[in-house]
Amino acid sequence: DSGVTQTPKHLITATGQRVTLRCSPRSGDLSVYWYQQSLDQGLQFLIQYYNGEERAKGNILERFSAQQFPDLHSELNLSSLELGDSALYFCASSAAGGQGMETQYFGPGTRLLVL
Amino acid sequence: AQSVTQLGSHVSVSEGALVLLRCNYSSSVPPYLFWYVQYPNKGLQLLLKYTSAATLVKGINGFEAEFKKSETSFHLTKPSAHMSDAAEYFCAVRNNAGNMLTFGGGTRLMVKP
Hints:
The complex is a heterodimer.
Chain A: E1 5-7, E2 10-13, E3 19-24, E4 31-38, E5 42-50, E6 53-57, E7 64-68, E8 74-78, E9 87-94, E10 105-106, E11 110-114
Parallel strand pairs in A: 2-11
Antiparallel strand pairs in A: 1-3, 3-8, 4-5, 4-9, 5-6, 7-8, 9-10, 9-11
Chain B: E1 3-5, E2 10-14, E3 19-21, E4 24-26, E5 31-38, E6 44-50, E7 56-58, E8 64-68, E9 73-78, E10 87-95, E11 102-103, E12 107-112
Parallel strand pairs in B: 2-12
Antiparallel strand pairs in B: 1-4, 3-9, 5-6, 5-10, 7-8, 8-9, 10-11, 10-12
């Protein structure tokens, strides 16, 4: 158990809908990262928040947004969902800004299915 | 730009045999390299990481990896496979200037009895 929690575990929704994925980092970790894992794209970095501020952005669609709250939990919002958004969404956390040898600890993921 | 290539999307070994999972990286600066394992329906778990302190890195569950700068490789090995090693393995790279991890495509390891 990494100490990173994600809810819900599974989510089934329809095209055009909006969903929110939630992540609680390990106790004391300041950075939260979101990754998307799909069969065709593999494991891709979406976005990082550090102590409430956006720190780095990857291949995140404009329909997706994230935020980190004062208690350091994070939410990933996915809107106008398309079939291709079906994937496993991971949250990871690290102690500080995430550079160098710092380890990222991954949660169990949220499996999103868009029908 | 940094990238990782994992040769072989599927590797099958017999129980007790040597495990060798290949990873080659591309990075313009000295990289930090990681191996993660993903068991079925689970998140990613760190196996080991290269931090430039030593070229041979020992990880959990008997795995180790050797950093070879001349070959830009960081292959993962285990002397004797167990059934419980069946999982998907990901190599990842991060350079010191960046925060994000760039992952390879993953290698699914199957262990035959």
